[in-house]
Amino acid sequence: MRFSSTEIRDLIKAWLAVTLAFTILYAGLRFDAGVLIVFAALAISVGLGFLLHELAHKFVAQKYHAWAEFRSDDRMLLLMLAVSAFGFVFAAPGAVMIGGHLPIDKHGKVALAGPSMNILLAIVFAALTFIPNPAFLFAGYGATINAWLAVFNLLPFGPMDGAKVLMWSKTAWAAAGIASLGVLFLTFAL
Fold it and tell me: For residues 118 and 146, is the Cβ–Cβ distance under 8 A?
């Protein structure tokens, strides 16, 4: 994969903002050693889910020889941080911009790559919850949040990944939707 310095800056900025928003959601607006632990755990479980979701889109787009770079949306980053103090996170930190024309099937596959990565990460984090090691206490967060990210991104509305997948293939959209809901319900049992 090819990265520009602008893209690397935007990925880091968005990763930190997503992690901070979820830290505020889980730990509140206090600052102590415990919050640093929560921040580190969420940087891995949630931040990694965001980062790998976007990189999956980029990888597949570049596989199809399209230009693809992540761009953060600073207004959405600020909104995300502001609303996290009120008990929920609306995570829309930016998107992978794709240049060039892709046929509908390839565009659908690019869109499906992100939620598929979140489904995979949710399964990996769910498996880590069964390892009796304090280092994996964050794994439950990672499983649940990545499952929610997959479900949310597969909604078939507007600019969401689900709308693009559905335009390409109802079968692929339904299969991904069933898988994401299945993994989400699995996380409720953790």
Answer: yes
